[in-house]
Amino acid sequence: MRYYQDDINSSYIEFSKKDDKNKIELKSESENDDKENDDIQDIKKMGVPNMPQQTKKEIQCITIIGEIEGHYIGNPQKKATKYEHIIPMLYSIEENEDIKGVLIILNTVGGDVEAGLAMAELINSISKKVVTLVLGGSHSIGVPLATAGDYSFIAPTATMVVHPIRTNGLVIGVNETFEYFKKMQERITQFIIRTSNIERSELEKIMHSKEDLVSDVGSVLIGKEAVECGLINEVGGLKEAMKKLRELIKEDTDK
């Protein structure tokens, strides 16, 4: 039994340990409710509940899925990757001395060309070792994103759609002219040539093909076809991508 002095009335108020226990139980229930609410919010935003704190890791995974969202908000019914989320993430990785490598998993239909190219340039310019893995597909502006790393993989059933710039893929809020489209296409072409093993003539050939796409020019490359033309380094999945990334990290550490 405990007593609490009431200075105003000069008396003692009595309360029991049972009351203390009830208060502790109420507080515990409140904390659990808060944690459940946090987990629900995490599931809504990220698809998984908040994971326990892990020990220091040397590999960071980034997923680029759905539509690449740029200067304007896309359709809320579609999955999207916002470039304003990816760019700070890459900066944070660059600043983190514990992280030695980055695995980027792609399954994108393309989207905003300026935003996608900006993300690709940043991926290509960070000092960490980067391996990209195409799962499902990496279409349109997803092509330079797939070639932006130090080494690239594509799943046997994954696809890459290579085509020239379309007006619905360029959303930058300016009056585009034919000359501007030519310059933008050249920027993308130069980036792909610089970051992959494909020859310019081969890239332009598959980009302007009229055989694969019914209502447009371009080509659909499935798995090993993307490797054979020089766009992607190797056919493989997560196991192969992780093994290669660890090899690149070890080579960089041994220098």
Commentary on this structure:
With 255 residues, this protein is of the alpha/beta class. It has helices at 17-46, 83-95, 113-125, 142-147, 178-195, 200-207, 224-228, 238-254, and strands at residues 2-6, 11-15, 59-69, 80-82, 101-111, 129-138, 151-154, 159-162, 219-222, 234-235. The strands form three sheets. The chain has a six-stranded parallel sheet. A two-stranded antiparallel ribbon has the order 1-2. Strands 8-9 form a two-stranded antiparallel ribbon. Strand 1 (2-6) and strand 2 (11-15) form a beta hairpin. The longest helix is centred in the first third of the chain and has 30 residues, at 17-46. The chain starts with a strand and ends with a helix. Mean pLDDT is 82; it is low at 169-173.
Topology diagram in text:
Layout: E1 2-6, E2 11-15, H1 17-46, E3 59-69, E4 80-82, H2 83-95, E5 101-111, H3 113-125, E6 129-138, H4 142-147, E7 151-154, E8 159-162, H5 178-195, H6 200-207, E9 219-222, H7 224-228, E10 234-235, H8 238-254
Parallel strand pairs: 3-4, 3-5, 5-6, 6-7, 7-10
Antiparallel strand pairs: 1-2, 8-9
Helix pairs in contact: 2-3
